[in-house]
Amino acid sequence: MSRIWHPGRSRLKGCLAGALVFAALAGGCGGSNSSDVSATATEAAETRRQVHPGETEALLEPTGESSAQGTARYQIRPHSTPVLHVEAAGLEPVSGRSRYAIWIVGDRHDMVNLAAFEAGEDGRLSRQIETPESYNFVEDGSKTELLITKVDDIDQVGEGIAQSSNPWDPPLIGEPVLQGTFEGPFVGSAGGAGGE
Fold first, then answer.
1. CA 22 to chain centre
2. Average model confidence (pLDDT) for the chain?
3. Which residue, 53, 107, 154, 169, is the most exposed by fewest CB within 10 angstroms?
4. Which pLDDT belongs to residue 52?
5. What is the pLDDT of residue 62?
6. What is the pLDDT of residue 13?
7. Where are the alpha helices (DSSP H) in the chain?
8. Distance CA 40, CA 37 (A)
9. Which positions ≥6 away from 7 have C-beta within 8 Å?
10. d(CA 176, CA 179)
11. Please, which residues have CB within 8 angstroms of residue 191's CB and are 6 or more apart in sequence?
């Protein structure tokens, strides 16, 4: 029984192994920018390695043609609101109306946009999100996947959500780039839809 939505991607087996294989291939491409490509791949692999046992987090794997890597982790302090930290590297730079949209997902027709951000020339994204919806859905177990999509026009995505009869089923989400499923003690801890 799976609530996970997989938008036509091939899941890499062995998170670190996949990142290191990509780094080795990118480093051997040659050309005047091979050191830049290799450095970006190494940064992606380093971002990917930052796993903290016992914490609630998702390892973000690339989808489609993406070569990005990342993690999403909840920092939970006693008597305070959980904060979601999203770290990614290897992204294509975007600006203007283009953004990377961050979604919390149950399935393709049950998802909420948490935020949208630009990515600079370094291809990195590092953000803290203090949106109550994000941790409520993970805590009750109804939406336990994090998805990052590349959106050409963030205004169109917002307009689509506003005009939809079901705001949890957005008509436009952009191109999936990264996704991962949250695991850890926080998932389903409220005993909601996905709790045990």
1. 19
2. 76
3. 53
4. 57
5. 96
6. 28
7. 15-27, 34-49, 132-140, 154-163
8. 5
9. 63, 64, 108, 147, 176, 179
10. 8
11. 140
